[in-house]
Amino acid sequence: MPKICCIDLKQEDLELLQNKYDDIYIGTLGKIQILKYKNQYDKIPLLPDYVIPNNLHEYDIIIIDLNNHTTVDYDETSKDKINRTGKNRPVLVCNSGQNIFDPRPFASYALNERIMETKRDMIIVIFSSSDDDDEYSIANDVNDLYNKSKVTYYLFELLPDIVAITHSGKEVIVCEEIKDSRINGILCKYIPDFEYKSAFRLPSEYDSELNTRVTSKEYLPLLKSTDDKTVSYAAEYNNKMYYIFPDSTRKGELIIDLLDNYFPAISPELFPESTLNAWLGNEAYFVPNHKDLVNHKIKLVQEYETKIQNADYEISNNLQLHSWLHDLITKDGDELKSAVIKYLEYIQFDEVTDMDVQGINDEDIQIEYGKKLIITEVKGLGGTSTDSDMLQVTKHFGIRTREHKDKDVSSLYIVNHRKHMEPLNRPFDPLHERQIKMLEGLPIGYVTTWQLFLTYKYIKEDVFSKSDIREQITNHSFITFKPLENYQEFGVSKVYKDRTVASIDIVDFEVSIGQDIVIFNDHFIMDKARIISIQKGNNQVETISNGKIGIVCGLPFTEGKSIFLRKA
């Protein structure tokens, strides 16, 4: 069997390989160190802690995972170790202000130098990450840390002659350029497990027959992103075969698959045991039915790829169809207003009017609903709302009231606050206590686009009804939507048994085992479950309509909070 050197593989992946192969070396590019200084003039000398075998030239296969971001605190005792090495030995130096030391780009350069010095054939498998880089200060003498030179190294020093760009995603497609069904089948098997953080521009050459530039013949794209960028490739360079893959949750299994089912075929000299009778794979020695079965397998792989591509197309179309929902929580200006209008039309108000189209710039939108007229202002903000932001829409309240004497006029302020921040990390109720008091008694409602996004999902899940939103959107102050048409609200008076049991009072409302229950947390995120136990006094019951009861649904309850039970 070949000798294998593994660099920075996770423990679970190493264990899979060690259970199958004997000769495995475990190395590392080093750990990211967290530095602490005694004062602003302090300098810390460091030696990279990478571990590479001295006899790397004797190994057949090198497997490197560039996704190791393990951090450790700097060990003060290492200074003594460096000092004991004597003078005239180069060391890396960090100055006060540099709080993190990443040795991996430096070690990547050192490892690549060792690989390039090796004359023998090798297979090198690299799981790529983002192309981190670092500038290193190098002192030639441990006793003179002020006389330094500087050099920058990249984590992708290991990748020959390519340009990497930052590009991330999880959806990949097997490249059409692959003609070998063995590697094709392996890649298809692990498609759901890949996550790329970089894409690659491969070297090209001029093709006189096609009269255009094509990828150099030494390079073979393996996987592409859905926007047609190469995220995995194979390359032949300096008598070595490189296989660059994205990060994967099943690295160990993928490596074993390659070692068992692909590498022996392309590098038989490294796998003498596996390829002793490899000639049996020639068509001249096929057993009956073998060729038909191989062709059938190839067809299945092609069909699978087609299905994956069709699924990707459907995903892309669905995202495009519902792009306005993402606009609700990311955009500002006209794009945000357009998304809000789509939401309001989906809720089925009688009429939703874009006032800018009407040539009226006083408010953004007018909503008509029966006898109600809602004048609406929409804003996308990098922060939270100022007083003037909130009250702008009320400036025109008196005018609209006089113009529409037959209508119940109210004001609505819709905001996409902290629009550059992930909504789950935003304050759900972005108003200050003073602003809440300021809104008391004013005919204005305040709602965030994140609430609209969530209620759309809850309508699709048949918890909210559209009329729930229509009726409550004219409420004043900060609006908290509730599912009222399909669900009944109850307050939790007491909780028991580590919050697994809720005590509620019911009057003429049937509660049964298996009934749907909904609970909202403080950020309006919904948990939905079914009642699994009902207790009245000391008795378990299947159904009950009146009295104080205890219910269990598998969700935690909070005393004083509301829960919602599905109406019959």
Write the layout of secondary structure elements.
Layout: E1 4-7, H1 11-18, E2 24-27, E3 32-34, E4 43-46, E5 61-65, E6 71-73, H2 78-84, E7 91-95, E8 100-101, H3 104-117, E9 122-127, E10 133-141, E11 144-154, E12 163-169, E13 172-174, H4 181-190, E14 194-201, E15 204-207, E16 212-215, E17 219-225, E18 230-237, E19 240-245, E20 247-248, H5 251-261, H6 263-266, H7 290-321, H8 323-328, H9 333-346, E21 351-354, E22 365-369, E23 372-380, H10 387-391, H11 397-403, E24 408-416, H12 433-439, E25 444-448, H13 449-460, H14 466-472, E26 477-478, E27 487-491, E28 494-496, E29 501-506, E30 511-512, E31 516-520, E32 526-530, E33 533-536, E34 539-540, E35 543-544, E36 547-552, E37 562-566
Parallel strand pairs: 1-2, 1-5, 3-6, 5-9, 9-19, 23-24, 24-25, 25-26
Antiparallel strand pairs: 3-8, 4-7, 7-10, 10-11, 12-14, 13-17, 14-20, 15-16, 17-18, 18-19, 21-22, 22-23, 27-37, 28-29, 29-36, 30-35, 31-32, 31-37, 33-34, 33-36
Tell me what you see in this structure.
- With 568 residues, this protein is α+β, with helices and mostly antiparallel strands.
- It folds into 4 domains: 4-276, no CATH class; 284-318; 325-478, Restriction Endonuclease (3-Layer(aba) Sandwich); 487-566, Beta Barrel (Elongation Factor Tu (Ef-tu), domain 3), CATH 2.40.30.10.
- 25% of the residues lie in helices and 32% in strands.
- The protein contains 14 helices and 37 strands.
- The strands form 9 sheets. The chain has an 8-stranded mixed beta sheet with strand order 2-1-5-9-19-18-17-13. The protein has a 6-stranded mixed beta sheet with strand order 21-22-23-24-25-26. The protein has a 5-stranded antiparallel beta sheet with strand order 28-29-36-33-34, with no helix packed on it.
- Strand 33 (533-536) and strand 34 form a beta hairpin.
- The termini are far apart.
- The model has no long low-confidence stretch (mean pLDDT 88).
